[in-house]
Amino acid sequence: MGGLRLPVLPSPLEEIADARLGGRGVRLLLKRDDLIHPDIPGNKWRKLRGNLDEARRLGHDTLLTFGGAYSNHVRAVAAAGRLFGFRTVGVIRGEEHLPLNPTLRFAVDAGMRLTYLDRTSYRTKSSPGVVDRLRAEFGAFCLLPEGGSNALGVRGCAELPAEIDRPFDVICCSCGTGGTLAGIAAGLAPGQRALGVPVLRGARFLADEVDALQRAAFGVNSGNWTMAYDFHFGGYAKSTPELARFIADFHDRHGLALEPVYEAKLLYALFALAADAFPPGTTVVAVLNALADRAFRATPSPT
Ligand SMILES: *Cc1c(COP(=O)(O)O)cnc(C)c1O
User: Fold this and answer.
1) Pair (277, 170) in one structural domain
2) Where are the catalytic residues (predicted)?
3) pLDDT tens digit string along 121-174?
4) In this structure, are 210 and 70 located in the same domain?
5) Is 71 one of the catalytic residues?
């Protein structure tokens, strides 16, 4: 569907008037990174851009990356490879399931070759043993880590805050690998802070990941970010009736179908925390990397 249109930066900024926040003097701005490209979710493009330049500079014609069977990153690498003329290989965690799910179907249609690693090998996917086996099978490649979260990717995300041409106090994003939060926090001005909302259960390890990514990309931890761990709704890609109601209500109020794995949990957290976390007069920016694939319907359509 994205065809050959190129990603567009900067992404738009949009104010959302919501009485639940407005009533206490809090303004909410959405950074619409979902509009950067239809097949390369916003932060995936921000993380890939520098990596693609580097791959080209080093003379690579093949990108190889890792992810789960529903990975937005794997899908985005496939789309970017087609768009910018790289061959792509996706190394998928677990066994092959046929027919392919829509994420992997898209990737294959975009020209990506897929291979599968059992869960034990997947845990050591960056070890020389596993990488050598992949090179024997696929030839030379530029290796992109899971989620695209390496130093170049994090530096790409650090460019986001400078695109925001209005004063703000707090910027919030959802967290999978934490690369997006690591970059965004590093790009803030003094006095501004970042809040990350992990979508995984038991994600306290993520603070160390963000710390390590910031040190790799910038040499220091920016010290201006925190995380809210209690909004995973059971874990990655899990949901509850309460989250579903929130998504339906948000769609009714604002006409936006929130993407359920990451961004609905981010927005839910933001409204839940508003009273404690944001004093009157606070301007909050929420980064939306994607919307839902299909327009949300409050009642399932009869099919
Ligand atoms: C990948 C992704 C995230 C998580 O980004 P990380 O940098 O891995 O933390 C958030 N939202 C969407 C829509 C994504 O595709």
Assistant:
1) yes
2) 71
3) 999 999 999 999 999 999 999 999 999 999 999 999 999 999 999 999 999 999
4) no
5) yes
What is the distance in A from the centroid of ligand 1 to the CA of 24? 29
Verify that 31 and 161 share a domain, yes or no. Answer: yes
Which among 104, 44, 18 has a CA at the least distance from the CA of 262?
44
pTM of the model: 0.94
**Which residue, chain included where needed, has tokens 């898209």?**
106
Q: Helix, strand or coil for residue 123?
A: helix
Terminal C-alpha separation, the chain: 24
**Number of structural domains in the chain:** 2
Domain hosting 243: range is: 13-40+150-288
Q: What is the pLDDT of residue 299?
A: 43
Q: Rounded distance, CA 157 to CA 144, Å?
A: 16
Residues 87 and 160 in one domain: no
Identity of the amino acid at 89? V
Residues 92 and 197 in one domain: no
263, 289, 291: residue to mutate for ligand 1 pocket, most atoms within 8 A of CB: 289
Pocket of ligand 1 (CB under 6 A): 41, 43-44, 72-73, 147, 149, 174-180, 259, 262-263, 289-290
Which of 109, 133, 148 is the endpoint of a domain? 148
**Cβ proximity of 52 and 84 under 8 Å:** yes
Domain-located, residue 102: yes
Q: Quick one: which atom of ligand 1 is closest to the CA of 153?
A: 7
Pairing between strand 193-198 and 225-227?
parallel
Look at residue 95 and tell me if it is in a domain.
yes
> Atom 4 of ligand 1 has which residue's CA nearest to it?
176
pLDDT tens-digit map of 242-272? 999 999 999 999 999 999 999 999 999 999 9
